[in-house]
Amino acid sequence: MSSYWTATAGPAPPDDGIAPPAADTDVAIIGSGYTGLSCAWHLAKTYGIKAMVLEANRPGWGCSGRNGGFARAAIGRHGYARMIELWGRDIARRVFAESLAAVQNVRDVLREGNITGGGTEAGHLKIAHRASRAAALVREVELLQREFDYPAQFLTAAQLRDEHIGGGEAHGALRFPDALAVHPLKLAYGMLGLARAAGATVHGASGVTGWKKPAPPTC
Ligand SMILES: Cc1cc2nc3c(=O)[nH]c(=O)nc-3n(C[C@H](O)[C@H](O)[C@H](O)COP(=O)(O)OP(=O)(O)OC[C@H]3O[C@@H](n4cnc5c(N)ncnc54)[C@H](O)[C@@H]3O)c2cc1C
User: Fold this and answer.
1) What is the pLDDT of residue 102?
2) What is d(CA 46, CA 49) in angstroms, rounded to the nearest whole number?
């Protein structure tokens, strides 16, 4: 499948080919998106555990190679105001800290994998596409500053036009200054390289059709 990301990611790095018909591994991982590749990488580099990643298509073929590329302080389906209502300030603050740590993690992977062009410190704009949406963004900026001490910014329509994007359909924006714009497929390719360099094997065209859970040993 072709996309902007496939057209600009450069050649796919090598993987370990189709999985052999019989093989031993400490851990078999199904799927070579960010989850599977990160798991294999961390098992290998942190614990010395041999992992084998089995991918039905090509590494990075799923969401990981074709997403929007936004990495910012956001997590889950609820906005932060709703999280505070549902779970209270303390938990909302911990969730927010977790989302910042996730962005930092992406930054660390880009650096550790030396993933050229994989991400830029562009910040993120949440744009009011109608004038009536701007007030809600102002409230969100105030909440992020007050509750999480986060340097969110509100940009007026004029500031947006002067500093970021032209056009007449933006009526202000919430700016997350420390967000990353990520090239998702380059990130996936980079993680493939990190996992393999750490000792994991990653097998494309190796769909998993079933598995068995061994019975627990009898005493
Ligand atoms: C349109 C879209 C936009 C998004 N935008 C963003 C965004 O801007 N920012 C953000 O943070 N997140 C975004 N996401 C979410 C993000 O892309 C996913 O959370 C992330 O990629 C999930 O990674 P994963 O490794 O769990 O799954 P995937 O990347 O989907 O990997 C799963 C892999 O498993 C393989 N597989 C499936 N079944 C089998 C099988 N039986 N045997 C072997 N292999 C198998 C698939 O081929 C696939 O490669 C977006 C998602 C979508 C769909």
Assistant:
1) 96
2) 8
Task: For residue 190, tell me if it sits in a domain.
Answer: yes
Q: CA distances (Å), 217 to each of 212, 213, 214, in order?
A: 15, 12, 9
CA of 32 to the centre of ligand 1 (A): 9
Q: Are strands 51-54 and 201-203 parallel, antiparallel or unpaired?
A: parallel
Give the model confidence (pLDDT) of 87-101 as tens digits. Answer: 999 999 999 999 999
Is residue 76 a part of any domain in this protein? no
| CATH number of residue 1's parent domain | 3.50.50.60
In a domain, 163, yes or no: no
Residue at 63 is within a domain: yes
How many distinct structural domains can be found in the chain?
Answer: 1
Residues 185, 12: Cα–Cα separation, whole Å? 9
**Which two tokens mark 124?**
């993120």
Q: Would you mind telling me the total number of residues written for the chain in this entry?
A: 219
Lookup: tokens for 102: 């996730």
Question: Which domain range does residue 11 map to?
Answer: 1-69+183-210
**Hey, which of 3, 37, 57, 63 would you mutate to test ligand 1's pocket, going by the most ligand atoms within 8 Å of its Cβ?**
63
- The conformational region for residue 29 under phi > 0 = left, psi -120 to 50 = alpha, else beta, is beta
